[in-house]
Write a structure and sequence with these properties.
There is one protein chain. By secondary structure, this protein is mainly α. The chain contains eleven helices and no strands.
Length: 191
């Protein structure tokens, strides 16, 4: 099954993981791996089912909650995603779990909670480029352009290949220049 998954043969991988589960339903990794394949083929509902089964069979593993949270977020079920990230963080407060919860908060429109989660992620891993980028996006949406620019710059310093940070930094720079021109024009008219 793993070979088929790597060869980009999801139908065969799912078939083999299903057979493996039938033969040994207590091996949690089969559910986790089949869920990953389901996610790749956009069968998020089936991925959630397998991730839920993994949690039922081994509820101590924080990653199971994180993975299911990511699936819920893909389905725009942000409250359920946040609940799973909360459980993952309670069990193991890793930077990536805070990052993922921050994304869910941001997609839900709660920018302050998103920024707080990105801050927590960065407190655990100060060079987590995606957390820096995402915090920059949240700050930009809150019209804090200077802080957003600093976050984009820090994200690019941490990972110069993060293309989305390059794009957003350039767009923000254009917006800041246009804003400066508008301010200058308003001052000239006011005189």
């Amino acid at each position: 099954a793993a070979a088929f998954a790597k060869m980009r043969e999801p139908r065969l991988a799912i078939r083999d993981y299903s057979e493996a589960i039938r033969l040994d339903p207590d091996l949690v990794q089969y559910y986790v791996d089949r869920a990953a394949v389901f996610s790749k083929v956009r069968r998020v509902d089936l991925a959630i089912d397998d991730e839920s089964e993994a949690i039922l069979r081994d509820p101590r593993v924080a990653e199971h909650y994180d993975r299911r949270g990511q699936s819920y977020a893909r389905n725009s079920a942000y409250d359920r995603a946040i609940a799973d990230y909360n459980e993952a963080i309670r069990r193991q407060p890793e930077a990536t779990f805070y990052l993922h919860r921050g994304v869910a908060h941001q997609l839900k429109g709660d920018l302050d909670a998103a920024i707080a989660d990105y801050d927590q992620a960065l407190a655990r891993d100060g060079r987590l480029a995606l957390a820096l980028h995402n915090r920059g996006m949240a700050r930009w949406k809150k019209h804090d352009r200077v802080a957003a620019a600093a976050d984009f710059d820090a994200a690019l310093a941490a990972d110069p290949t993060l293309d989305i940070a390059v794009e957003h930094r350039k767009a923000l720079a254009r917006e800041m220049v246009q804003g400066a021109h508008a301010t200058t024009a308003r001052r000239a008219v006011a005189r």
